[in-house]
Amino acid sequence: MSTVLAIETSCDETAVAIVNNRQVCSSIIASQISVHQQYGGVVPEVASRQHLDTINGAIAQALEQAKLDWENIDGIAATCAPGLVGALLVGLTAAKTLAMVRNKPFLGVHHLEGHIYATYLSEPALEPPFLSLLVSGGHTSLIYVKDCGIYETLGETRDDAAGEAFDKVARLMKLGYPGGPVIDRLAREGNPQAFILPEGKVSLATGGYHRYDASFSGLKTAVLRLVQQFEKDEQPIPVADVAASFQETVARSLTKRTIACALDYGLSTIAIGGGVAANSGLRKHLQQAAETHNLRVIFPPLKFCTDNAAMIGCAAADHLNRGHTSALTLNVQSRLALTQVMNLYQ
Q1: d(Cα 57, Cα 15) in Å, to the nearest integer?
Q2: What DSSP letter does each residue of 97-119 carry, written as one string?
Q3: Mean per-residue pLDDT for 270-276?
Q4: Which 3 state secondary structure label does DSSP give 73?
Q5: Phi, psi at residue 8, to the nearest 5°?
Q6: Considering the entire predicted model, what is its pTM?
Q7: 144 contacts 112 by C-beta, under 8 angstroms
Q8: Which residue of 71, 110, 244, 314 has the smallest Cβ count within 10 Å?
Q9: 2-35, pLDDT tens digit by residue?
């Protein structure tokens, strides 16, 4: 089984990990949250400079933590798409350089494929086919996982991703960045039935609504109008109740679509990935609904929900085991459909 050193720099975490097949040997994550909080979101140029300052130390720490040297490493991997171009370039350049200097195979990994593989880190025996719900700051998708590198997108958001909606709603209520954790914490203190908020639906040209696609822009606007009404009436905003009602609506919307998709396609296992997979409301709703329909739902450990290099290494190890490698001419891409993963390999 292959041992891979993987680098993840797609956004605001500088992460390096060493993974042997589906076993994590080391995982280093240097978060930039404190740096970007003052701006209310990620500043791409700042993120890239932080990666440059941190990447060499993270690589050294990963090797030290794993108690391995370069002779034990079979391949070098890095996230190449999608993500912030400048940030991706830091990780990809480091990985290519190491691959050339150490004479190791190089692999470029799709960030969303990494989130799918995060589940394997806690469930090594898991095998396709299964349904993956990917919910992060930039992506919300329902993916039919057929095999390594073979995916079919069955549903997605038509506008804001779930994580993006959390951040925007948090900003509306001046809760800071990132919004997901603080809304989750406040929601536990609030009444999820305090406000009836719209569950976004995507209309079909033939009538009715799409069973799997989601929309969160209308929900975000509804929260904005609610906050503006309290401000107009010069009343304090019941932050905990608004947070709970918003989170309840998102969790209900995602759960409804995920369960319907799994049942329609005869998939008995649902794997969740991405930062929003850490949300307690979504976990509760999906687990309850899965039990009702005799489905299995798997959440990765909280430390592997947000961006990390262990998930990238896990995906890379599987590809390397199958003889897949990438050309050293591979470049970064800000956008790349998950269905085009195999274009990254020779």
Answers
A1: 10
A2: HHHHHHT--EEEEEHHHHHHHHH
A3: 96
A4: coil
A5: -130, 115
A6: 0.94
A7: no
A8: 71
A9: 999 999 999 999 999 999 999 999 999 998 888 8
